[in-house]
Amino acid sequence: MRQEELEQLQIKALEQFKSGKSLFGKDGAFAPMLKQFLEAALESEMEEYLDEQERSGGNKRNGKGKKTIKSSTGTFEIETPQDRQSNFEPQIIKKRETVLADNLQDKIIGLYGLGMSLRDISAHIKEMYDTDISHTVLSQITDRIIPEVKAWQNRPLEPVYCIVWLDAMHYKVRCEGKVEHKALSNILGINTAGMKEVLGMYVSESEGANFWLQVLTDLHNRGLKDILIACTDNLKGFSQAIQSVYTKAEVQSCIVHQVRNSLKYVASKDQKEFMRDLKEVYRADTKDLAEMELDSLASKWQGKYPIVIQSWQNNWEKLTTYFQYTAPIRKLIYTTNAVEGYHRQIRKVTKTKGAFTSDIALQKLVYLATKNIEKKWTSPLQNWSLTVQQLAIKFGNRLPLDLAHSPGQGLAPDQN
């Protein structure tokens, strides 16, 4: 390069650098250098490929093609060498590869995982990198995580989880030109070290006991052999489905779900007084006291709201499992707040989606959102050392302390 050309290059590069323009994209000062480097590298790969053995088989060069490359430094066009038999597989820029550099692909997947639409991602990439990427290419890039999603859904699980919450979210999904309502069932567990973990997600036509039986069977087949306490909503047949697979599991139906369902059938003018009386039931110190308060509730409201009172009486055993435990454990299990908190974070990401194009599109986004959420789950539950000892006493050899803590972890104080 002559001195005059070098000086012009320096001036152009400095202007583009100061203005924030891409130095490597279209009309970028360094674009010709990057183009020359890549083309020279491809030529070297072709020369190495067309060795004596390849040439003896009748293969040789067959002109050049053109390819537009999109990268985090901009968009530019290069010439690619071709062979007569079309067997040459370049490594620096692979066949059919139009998006160069893993970091740009990682950015695209990261933006998708934050809930950005393909349209918004395309605009963002254009603004940041002066690179146009079509919706088709963006979709192909996000599809690359599908094997990762499948592997995560089928990964082995630990043999024992202390507490497991089971609940579902509902989404619209397009299927054969129609929009259908699908249930996305999620399982959140606390392992023996006190760490939160999403055990799985499953898409179905509806949320029912038969479907949950399939989910629980899948968990068992993946290595989860024992659940100490299972927390659920009040879906009919749910407890039977759980205990048909995990026969020793204690099942706690969600008090909050029961309260919400009850209030649907209580007149608005009575709700405040009814709730004051109902709190005396589920906030009692012992199960015996709770039963006395339930009798008082029934004597006062039975005539006016017999269906509500009957629901509490019929579901009493499932609703009162938590009375066996101390206050910290009760707080964990008497509602499905833990999994609902996880759901709230998922909805922040999915709320911009009207309807997903397929089941796997829904699963891709929820998986990426889950990975981001789990990054924050770095510490055991508060006071887990005390909690796990109480569980070990309650459940005996189903949760021995040498299992409850990995070697070297001992019973050190938990992090908040």
UniProtKB/TrEMBL annotation:
MF annotations from Gene Ontology: DNA binding; transposase activity
Alphabetized UniProt keyword annotations: DNA recombination, DNA-binding, Transposable element, Transposition
PROSITE patterns in the cross-refs: TRANSPOSASE_MUTATOR
GO BP annotation list: DNA transposition
Annotated InterPro entries: Transposase_mutator (IPR001207)
Stretches the record annotates as Disordered: 48-71
Pfam families, per database record: Transposase_mut
UniProt cross-references to PANTHER family, sorted A to Z: MUTATOR FAMILY TRANSPOSASE, TRANSPOSASE FOR INSERTION SEQUENCE ELEMENT IS1081
Function: Required for the transposition of the insertion element.
Similarity comment text for this entry: Belongs to the transposase mutator family.
Protein name according to UniProt: Mutator family transposase
Species of provenance: Rapidithrix thailandica
High-level lineage: Bacteria, Pseudomonadati, Bacteroidota, Cytophagia, Cytophagales
